[in-house]
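Workshop exercise sheet. Pairs work together: one partner reads the sequence aloud, the other fills in the structure field after running the prediction. Swap roles for the next sheet.
Pair: D.N. / O.F.
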Amino acid sequence: MVKTPSELIQRSEQAYTGWLDGKSVYKAHFGIKELKGEIFDNRSYIIERDDGIVVGVWVSYRQIKGQWYVADIIGAPNDDAIRAMLNMTNPRVKPSRD
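Structure field:
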């Protein structure tokens, strides 16, 4: 389990480097940006390698005493995760009734 922001960034950097696997980044596509209560800033990105493989990345920042810190980083390559990170809904899927 990650305990500090620097550990989170270090692990994320290792995962990103592993995902690149010697390939280059073709493009970073910017997704959503949400500012919640001026305390949390959530952003999503889709990163595309030069071979067409994509990964969704969700970064959450937290403000403490006027300073912004990385609070969480999540990355996933599957379509469901990428759609969630972009806050997309499929009109063919009926919403669940709880």
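Discussion prompt: The longest strand covers residues 25-36. What would you look at next?
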